[in-house]
Every structure is written in structure tokens, then in C-alpha cells.
Amino acid sequence: MTLRHFLEITDLTATELAQVLVLSAMPTADLGGPLAGAGVALIFEKPSNRTRQSMEMAVVQLAGHPVYTRGEEVGFDVRESVEDVTRIMEGYHRVLAARVFDHAVVQRMAAVSSVPVVNMLSDHSHPLQALADVLTMTEEWGSLSGRTVAYVGDFNNVARSLTQACLMMGAHVRLGCPIGHDASVDEVDALRRIGSGSLEHFVDPAMATAGADAVHTDTWTSMGQETEKAQRREVFSRYQVNDALMSNAAPEAVFMHCLPAYRGYEVAASVIDGPRSRVIRQGHNRMHASRGLLAFLLGVRT
Ligand code: CP
Ligand code: NVA
């Protein structure tokens, strides 16, 4: 079996992404328990609700045993090197998963690991979240092809992975981000080479949401950026997804957010708690998408 890591959505081809979504939608019993008797390490340098819970349950559903470890316990590059941690843990586990501050840590793990390494969020990307996002939109519409997906706010880890996944699935992505918190010219060029979708970017959030089938946003202050919170609230103040911004989208448009959400900041309570919101379904889909991804990395195919 070929060793595969999952650090970014683009570690999959479009065909493989479609396969992961098929596996994610399959009944657990049909996946054959590929982790029987095996462990999966889940290392968290940052807090988590959804990612920890959904990954632990996905591992159990695949007949494996999750081992949760706090970042301080392993002490990447403090207690011992990333490489030593990885080489030891690969002897205990079939998969190593980590949520890290610095994306280079998961890249260094993947460089020496003989078992799959999964990125459970880094400063650069959040590909497990994007899997659940496209799974949720696929359930909503049947297919993303030709659909318009808007993302408003900070072009961060969540936005990057979402954009990659949507482009790979043939959607039109419209970003609405303030200057300085948007995708760089080079990155936009690189993103435009992904898949069969299209990418437009705007400074005006209303331009991004015009006619959109889904409107996504995320926190203005990601984990690790807490000292910038006040300044960020000022920069992003006109990027709140509220009823006025949603009224600009398609009549049936849905609202999505990876959570945790900060009501009154990046989203109005009336939107996230209203009838267009899909955030709870989206959160639940984290478990199904993680199970599908793990099964794929372990060689399960339909
Ligand atoms: N969306 C997400 O990754 O949530 P957690 O930080 O709670 O895992
Ligand atoms: N962008 C956020 C996502 C949290 C799930 C962060 O990195 O904190």
C-alpha cells in the first residue's frame, strides 16, 4: 500500500477527494474496520472540541484505538525533536495526527514517518475541516460543480483549505477579505491552477456574496493570534455576515462556519442561529469526513 499523508487538500487529486466523500457517506460497517487492533496518535498543541471528538470517534468506528496527547506532553523540539517523536510513535500507531502552531511541524513529521500523517489544523491549513465543508455542501446540492461559494473575512487556514477543496470540485469561489488579510497574488495564481472551478477575490464583502449559494466565514482571530484581537476586530468590522450581507446571496443560500463562532463579530446571531445555517450539520460531518479520510489513507476503496 502506498504511503499517503494528508497535510493539505491538494495532497489528494480531485478523483481521490471524490472517493473520500463516497467513503465518508458509507455506513461504518461497510468500511471493514481497517484499524482493528491498531492505535492512532492524536497530538494537540491547541485546544479543540470538534476535531478531537470527531477523530476519536472516527478511529473507534474503524475499530482502532485513539491516543490523545497534549502538545506539552510530547514537547516538540523542547522535550525532544519532532523527528524523534515521530519515529517512536510510528512504532505504536497506524496513523499519526497532529494539530500544530507551525505547519512545518507536520511537514517534518511526514518527511520521516512510515505511517500516514494527518494535519488536524496548522497555521497554514485545516484540510479535515474542508472535507466536512464540501461533504455538507454536496449533501445540500448533490454536487458543487457550477455552484458559487463565498468566503468572507480572514484568508486563514480554514479559508485556504476550503478554497482548494471547492476549486477541486468545480465550484466558483468568491473571496471577500480586507487588504493585508487576503490571499497573496502568488497564492491566487497557484489556487487558480487547481481543479475545474474559478476564483475571484474582492475587498468588498458584498461583491463576494452576490448571488452565492453558500456563505462561509470564520473567526477574525485564530488560535495563536490572541494578542491581535482588538486590532483585528477593527480591521474586520465591516466583514460581519449579517442579514444584510445574506440578503445579497442567492435566495436559497446557506450559511456555514467551522466553529467555534463569535456571535456579534464575524457572524450575527440571527444568521448562525437562523434557518439558513448549516453549522451543526457541518460540525457533525467532521466525524463522517474524518472516518472516510482515515479509511482512504488505510487503503479502503469502493
Ligand atoms: N472546527 C474545528 O476545528 O473545531 P475545533 O477547534 O473545536 O476542533
Ligand atoms: N481559524 C481558526 C479555526 C478554528 C477551528 C483557528 O485557526 O483558530
UniProtKB/TrEMBL annotation:
Coiled coil segments of this chain: none
Protein's recorded name: Unannotated protein
GO molecular function: amino acid binding; ornithine carbamoyltransferase activity
Span of domain Aspartate/ornithine carbamoyltransferase Asp/Orn-binding: 146-297
Keyword annotations from UniProtKB, A to Z: Transferase
GO BP annotations, alphabetical order: citrulline biosynthetic process; L-arginine biosynthetic process via ornithine
Pfam families: OTCace, OTCace_N
Cross-referenced NCBIfam families: orni_carb_tr, PRK00779.1
Residue ranges of every copy of the Aspartate/ornithine carbamoyltransferase carbamoyl-P binding domain listed in the record: 4-139
